[in-house]
């Protein structure tokens, strides 16, 4: 039954993409700065296709956040009103025009970095995974200038930050980085977990490097908030797959869908890595809690989200926890890396690679062919034999 | 009958790990029957020859000095005691062979090695046996004698396991590898010695049963290991306070107690065997194996095909079991205990099914068809594991069944294509190639897993089994074309035997 579903989903991906799917897009990355205070800026990724445009607006105004807006015209534009945006009432500071072209919009806010002490927890699935240290609020981080890290060749940019107040000096030699990358066509990066991306997606890689942990066996977690429609929250789907070719021994793909397809999605493999090479020996499990509704004032406020969506919003949040008390962890090399995709349309699904299909085809075909050929040979041989027998 | 009997003797010179169910398969040709038949078998078991005359002598009447049944070598009670010792003789080596598989996650985590290096632990076990399976019988017969041979091999197993454990305690992976190498030297040859003991004590008596029991004991050893070591590790972890290489080393050291137990059995057997020799004037057991490497050039094409079938098949079973535990936890979401249980099911099934399939193949003949069935079933089972999310118990039970069937149908075929005097060489060669295949494929499997994951690994195993399948088909065709005797039914074999007798 499950395999049938798998097969169906494979067929679905082979079918033409939904409303917004485009093979290739003209992708541009632009840093939009405040004229008055150039340290305040936004990263605008515009992916223009033949009949649609996707806008991703990343910003570190407040906690790191991203707006995701899909329009059904190649000519939509983003308008930023900085004086509104940095005011205490930022409503209307960000707009995508024309407004009626918007097909889908949502946002993600990365609100807090958690740290747990896993020393005395043997149960890997325990929630929370140990005694919690006070979390770092990402709204109180200072972020390096995004312009310096902008790389038009790879369509990527990095937000790198550390707490403004760091009394313990935990971030003295370390940082938390959000690396954003957009794609003009589909493909797969060389770095694990090698998520399949399309022109409709962009990738976020969260790296925590060199930060001194507060315990010997500290686990880190990330709180992610998003917009809900009404009081209900979108759900995290855990898809089991047979294919771990691109992320060895990871047979699961998690995704958050904001509505019925095609809509926006966030997709990740439940794995993080404790070493830069991202091999199997450094793979840590990544556990996601389910989404729970939360009140806006309980979360650090994101001016970007408020500027686009206004102040009347339902928020949902969920936590990602990286690693377990046993196995590789952040403590190995003070390194943690986790990746996700953000996009619009049908989430990409891995298909069996042609190499796998080729090998299986040969492996099953060769003995069958041999049997066939041999059978024919034996039959003909016998016939020949019986025909010539009477001569004797 | 004599052919069959000789086959049994040769089988005694082979390791059981790689030869599951064979002894039973062959010996069960004459299922427990009237006493005369067994006596006849006893004589048939002896390869003729002047210097062998003493060995087959009927059991000496009980010594006049009335010994209690348990201490009297000629009584059943005493033989049962010996049987118990024989069974536990192999227990340690079977228990410890699959220690790495049972502790895969722990070994990789605590020693900080990737899967490729982890699989070297299996490869190092196989390397010495590429050569040793030619000499195991020779060493037992000519150099050490059965008693000292058994003790020496047991010592190798013990020392190997201790060194393996020390490697964990000192966090030296090379030392662990070396331990497995030493363990490998002892392990396979110990199985040869164990079989020789069995033939020497039970030929013409309860030999079927004894081989069966020894095999079951081997499987029980593997199964207990799979299901016990993880638990043991967590207990050691609890008492030492934290997981780590020391915990791993201590756990393995505790596992090594089974090897000490085996060594004690070896010593006890040596004493009892010597005592029996004194009381019953019984000779030391011999494998009767004759190995002549120059025979290789005379091996026929079907025999080479049988070798290929054997290698292609077993490399898709043993390395898979070695790597299976994590596969079941990650892909199917099994708990650690459940994964251990399912990973040992192949062994669990083969324990009772080997005799059944042995009888089945004996009664029906048609070995190639049975081998074909087994290989196709294995292929199907690997396909299920690779491409579906169906409950893996189905696939693993199929694998267990086909594994038992293959052993019963494949190994006896060698005896049909090789003249009697070359049987020892043929079987030695078959085991050697198999060990070579296992060593190489173990390493390759680890590399594939690290780079491309389990799906690709399964596809690789499918390719191996399919290669084996290709050879089975070819063997069928060649046999058919040459009018060979491999696929005769049991009745045809009887008729031929009768016509030869006339």
Automatic annotation (TrEMBL), chain A:
Cross-referenced InterPro entries: NCU-G1
* Membrane-spanning ranges: 355-380
Q: Which residues form the signal peptide?
A: 1-21
Membrane topology per record: Single-pass type I membrane protein
Tell me where it resides: Lysosome membrane
Database matches in Pfam families:
NCU-G1 (PF15065)
Biological processes annotated in GO: positive regulation of transcription by RNA polymerase II; protein localization to lysosome; protein stabilization
Annotated GO CC locations: cytosol; lysosomal membrane; nucleus
The principal location of this protein is: membrane
Q: Which UniProt keywords apply?
A: Glycoprotein, Lysosome, Membrane, Signal, Transmembrane, Transmembrane helix
Do the record's keywords include Glycoprotein?
yes
Q: How does it assemble?
A: Interacts (via lumenal domain) with lysosomal protein MFSD1; the interaction starts while both proteins are still in the endoplasmic reticulum and is required for stabilization of MFSD1 in lysosomes but has no direct effect on its targeting to lysosomes or transporter activity.
The record describes the protein's role as: Required to protect lysosomal transporter MFSD1 from lysosomal proteolysis and for MFSD1 lysosomal localization.
- What family does the database annotate? Belongs to the GLMP family.
The family database entries (PANTHER family) matched by this protein are listed as: GLYCOSYLATED LYSOSOMAL MEMBRANE PROTEIN
Protein name from the UniProt record:
Glycosylated lysosomal membrane protein
Top-down, what is the taxonomic lineage of the species of origin? Eukaryota, Metazoa, Chordata, Craniata, Vertebrata
Automatic annotation (TrEMBL), chain B:
Organism's domain of life? Eukaryota
Keywords attached to this Swiss-Prot or TrEMBL record, sorted alphabetically, are: Lysosome, Membrane, Transmembrane, Transmembrane helix, Transport
What PROSITE patterns has UniProt attached to this entry?
MFS (PS50850)
What's one GO-annotated cellular component?
Answer: lysosomal membrane
Positions of region (Disordered): 33-58
Q: Where in the cell is it found?
A: Lysosome membrane
Q: Which residues form the Major facilitator superfamily (MFS) profile domain?
A: 79-482
Q: Which Gene3D superfamilies does the record match to this protein?
A: MFS general substrate transporter like domains
Residues passing through the membrane, by range: 76-97, 118-140, 146-170, 248-272, 301-321, 341-361, 368-387, 393-417, 429-449, 455-478
Q: Which reaction does it catalyse?
A: L-alpha-aminoacyl-L-histidine(out) = L-alpha-aminoacyl-L-histidine(in); L-aspartyl-L-lysine(out) = L-aspartyl-L-lysine(in); L-lysyl-L-alanine(out) = L-lysyl-L-alanine(in); L-histidyl-L-alpha-amino acid(out) = L-histidyl-L-alpha-amino acid(in)
Membrane topology, as annotated: Multi-pass membrane protein
A GO molecular function term, named singly, is: transmembrane transporter activity
Keyword RNA-binding listed? no
Predominant subcellular localization, coarse grouping: membrane
So what family is this one in?
Belongs to the major facilitator superfamily.
How this chain assembles, per its entry, is:
Homodimer. Interacts with lysosomal protein GLMP (via lumenal domain); the interaction starts while both proteins are still in the endoplasmic reticulum and is required for stabilization of MFSD1 in lysosomes but has no direct effect on its targeting to lysosomes or transporter activity.
Q: What does this protein do?
A: Lysosomal dipeptide uniporter that selectively exports lysine, arginine or histidine-containing dipeptides with a net positive charge from the lysosome lumen into the cytosol. Could play a role in a specific type of protein O-glycosylation indirectly regulating macrophages migration and tissue invasion. Also essential for liver homeostasis.
Matching PANTHER family, A to Z?
MAJOR FACILITATOR SUPERFAMILY DOMAIN-CONTAINING PROTEIN 1
Report the protein name in the record: Lysosomal dipeptide transporter MFSD1
Organism from which the protein derives: Balaenoptera musculus (Blue whale)
């Amino acid at each position: 039954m499950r395999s049938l579903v798998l097969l169906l989903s494979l067929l679905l991906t082979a079918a033409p993409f939904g409303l917004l799917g485009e093979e290739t897009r003209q992708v541009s990355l632009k840093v939009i700065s405040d004229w008055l205070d150039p340290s305040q800026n936004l990263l605008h990724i515009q992916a223009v296709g033949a009949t649609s445009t996707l806008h991703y607006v990343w910003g570190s105004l407040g906690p790191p956040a991203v707006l995701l807006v899909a329009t059904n015209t190649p000519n939509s534009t983003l308008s930023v009103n900085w004086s509104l945006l940095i005011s205490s009432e930022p409503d209307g500071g960000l707009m995508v025009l024309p407004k009626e072209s918007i097909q889908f919009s949502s946002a993600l806010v990365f609100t807090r970095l958690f740290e747990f002490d896993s020393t005395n927890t043997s149960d890997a699935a325990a929630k929370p995974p140990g005694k919690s240290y006070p979390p770092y609020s990402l709204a109180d981080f200072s972020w390096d200038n995004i312009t310096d890290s902008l790389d038009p060749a790879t369509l990527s940019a990095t937000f790198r930050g550390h707490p403004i107040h760091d009394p313990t000096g935990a971030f003295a030699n370390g940082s938390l980085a959000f690396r954003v990358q957009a794609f003009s066509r589909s493909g797969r990066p060389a770095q694990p977990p090698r998520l399949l991306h399309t022109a409709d997606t962009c990738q976020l890689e969260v790296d925590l490097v060199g930060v001194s942990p507060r315990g010997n066996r500290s686990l880190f977690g990330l709180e992610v908030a998003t917009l809900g429609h009404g009081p209900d929250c979108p759900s995290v789907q855990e898809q089991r797959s047979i294919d771990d070719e691109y992320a060895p021994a990871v047979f699961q793909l998690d995704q958050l869908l904001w509505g019925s397809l095609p809509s926006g999605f966030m997709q990740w493999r439940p794995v993080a890595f404790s070493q830069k090479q991202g091999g199997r020996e450094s793979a840590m499990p990544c556990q996601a809690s389910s989404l729970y509704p939360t009140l806006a004032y309980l979360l650090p406020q994101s001016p970007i989200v408020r500027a686009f969506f206004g102040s009347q919003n339902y928020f949902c949040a969920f936590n990602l926890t990286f690693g377990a008390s046993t196995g590789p962890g952040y403590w190995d090399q003070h390194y943690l890396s986790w990746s996700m995709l953000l996009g619009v349309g049908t989430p990409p699904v891995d298909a069996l690679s042609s190499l796998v299909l080729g090998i299986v085809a040969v492996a099953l075909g060769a003995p069958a062919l041999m049997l066939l050929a041999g059978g024919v040979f034996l039959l003909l041989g016998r016939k020949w034999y019986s025909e010539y027998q009477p001569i004797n | 009958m004599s052919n069959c009997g000789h086959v049994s003797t040769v089988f005694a010179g082979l390791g059981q790990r790689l030869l599951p169910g064979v002894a039973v398969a062959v010996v069960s040709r004459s299922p427990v029957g009237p006493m005369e038949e067994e006596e006849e078998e006893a004589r048939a078991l002896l390869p003729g020859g002047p210097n062998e005359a003493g060995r087959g002598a009927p059991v000496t009447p009980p010594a006049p000095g009335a010994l209690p049944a348990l201490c009297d070598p000629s009584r059943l009670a005493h033989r049962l005691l010996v049987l118990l010792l024989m069974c536990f003789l192999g227990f340690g080596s079977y228990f410890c062979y699959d220690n790495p598989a049972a502790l895969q996650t722990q070994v990789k985590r605590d020693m900080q090695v990737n899967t490729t290096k982890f699989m070297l632990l299996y490869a190092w076990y196989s390397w010495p046996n590429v050569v040793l399976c030619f000499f195991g019988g020779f060493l037992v017969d000519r150099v050490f004698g059965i008693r000292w041979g058994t003790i020496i091999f047991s010592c190798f197993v013990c020392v190997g396991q201790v060194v393996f454990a020390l490697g964990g305690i000192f966090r030296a992976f090379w030392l662990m590898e070396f331990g497995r190498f030493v363990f490998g030297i002892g392990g396979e040859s110990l199985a040869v010695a164990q079989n020789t003991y069995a033939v020497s004590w039970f030929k013409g008596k309860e030999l079927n049963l004894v081989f069966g029991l020894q095999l079951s004991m081997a499987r029980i050893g593997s199964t207990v290991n799979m299901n016990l070591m993880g638990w043991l590790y967590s207990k050691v972890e609890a008492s030492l306070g934290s997981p780590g290489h020391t915990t791993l080393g201590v756990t393995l050291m505790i596992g090594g107690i089974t090897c000490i137990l085996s060594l004690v059995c070896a010593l006890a057997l040596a004493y009892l065997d010597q005592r029996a020799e004194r009381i019953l004037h019984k000779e030391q057991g011999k494998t009767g194996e004759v190995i002549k490497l120059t025979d290789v050039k005379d091996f026929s094409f079907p025999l080479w095909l049988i070798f290929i079938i054997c290698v292609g098949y077993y490399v898709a079973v043993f390395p898979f079991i070695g790597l299976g535990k994590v596969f079941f936890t990650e892909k199917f979401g099994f708990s650690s205990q459940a994964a251990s249980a399912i990973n040992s099911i192949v062994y669990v099934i083969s324990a009772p099914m080997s005799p059944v399939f042995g009888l089945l193949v004996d009664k029906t003949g048609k070995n190639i068809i049975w081998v074909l069935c087994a290989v196709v079933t294995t292929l199907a089972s690997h396909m299920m594991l690779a491409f579906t999310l169906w409950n893996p118990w189905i696939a693993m039970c199929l694998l267990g069944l086909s594994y038992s069937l293959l052993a019963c149908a494949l190994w006896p075929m060698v005896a049909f294509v090789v003249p009697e005097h070359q049987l020892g060489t043929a079987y030695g060669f078959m085991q050697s190639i198999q060990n070579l295949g296992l060593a190489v494929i173990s390493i390759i499997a680890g590399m594939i897993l690290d780079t491309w994951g389990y799906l690709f690994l399964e596809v690789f195993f499918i390719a191996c089994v399919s290669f084996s399948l290709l050879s089975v088909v070819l063997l069928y065709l060649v046999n058919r074309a040459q009018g060979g005797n491999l696929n005769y039914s049991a009745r045809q074999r009887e008729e031929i035997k009768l016509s030869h007798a006339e």
